[in-house]
Write a structure and sequence with these properties.
Fumarase C, Chain B, domain 1, 458 residues, Fumarase C, Chain A, domain 2, two-stranded antiparallel sheet, 3 domains, mainly alpha, elongated, two-stranded parallel ribbon
Amino acid sequence: MPILPIDTGRYGTLDMKRIFEEENRLQRMLDVEAALAWAHSEVENIPRKDAEKIVQMASVRYVKLGRVKEIEREIKHDVMALVRALAEVCGSSGTYVHLGATSSDILDTASALQLKEVTELIMQRLNELERTLLEGAEKYKKTIMIGRTHGQHALPTTLGFKLALWMRQHSRNIQRFCQCSERLLVGKMSGAVGTQAGLGPNAVRIQELVMKRLGIKPAEISSQIVPRDLYGELVCLLAVIASTLDNIATEIRELQRTEIGELFEPFEKERQVGSSTMPHKRNPELCERICGLAKIMRGLVVPALENIPTWHERDLTQSSSERFILPEACILTDYMLFLMTKVLKNLEVDEKRMLRNLGLTQARMMSEAVMLALVSKGVGRQEAYELVRGLAIKSETKKSFFKEILLKNDVVGSTLSEIELDKALNPKNYIGTAVEQVELAIKKTCQERKVRGLVESY
């Protein structure tokens, strides 16, 4: 009976959840056992016909999950239950199943096989989201909007600049993910304490053969388990990715506020319901879901780091927590990337509202531009700052347009012409190098995508 929302189908994509289904996990463990038997036959430790039988039968078509669980209930050991179930269907060849291996050889190497599937899927999601951000940055690089600091109107910026900022943050996560994946996808065949004693004189060759057949690298060195700094790094990085998505989602939520109304996540107007009692509501529920799941992701970091210390060559303290945190971290990250791509691909932008919001401070948000215009005409910087600050406060207090207050001031009036003042108060003239920076960010991102084999034009 499903209990957790991942199991009930509320969260997660089918592609990612399939990787962590019990049958897929069982098959990956059987793949490792098959590779081990094959490697033994390659170095002539066991007869080839027996290895071929084990390889043939190492499939969930023959080794049933129900049978493995039945044995486990009896002997209280999951890997040994699998070994017995596989040996049962192999007949006399079953005597060679699991030869020289320890449980963690099978478990950790099977995890590497699952994580290989995980990294391929997440990489697809990362690339797709990056492309979406890239396209948005290009499309809106000149779309002027107000920038905000401390939740208050600051200076003009562009929507494309905001998207480019998110894009480069996301691109750095992709770089980190590629580097992490290189270290992460390793298996082991090294026995009870890592010395490979049970595998005989061809132990190093056996491990190499097993990993080559499985398409992963052997661990550089391991005890009974693959060192958990590898998993700790993965979960920490996934939490960073989740927090980046949280950052983007939080901004969209803020800009969807009724009082702001500049950006909106997609909403199916014909059938989607925003509230059970308020028919008018259009809530940013996708972005809120991303923000909520990011909290869970950050919470998984602590147990992932706690799993790095172990007693001596290994203990079981990491085993139980990993059964939760690895599937959760991978499933939720994949799902959040899927959601964020959906939001950004279908983002609604109200450019008219952006222009209207630029006028809310009656041009006071251009105070820096006025101050610098005065400085350019010979007024001292500090003098100009105090003068403009006082006039901005006066404009706000009287609810008067900033230009009117400025024109009435003797210093401003005698220093700047009305044309010069209009130029300083025009937000289109004060976005600095925003467009140039967006274009540079786009160029850099395109170059990085080309290196990754993604060739596109924008």
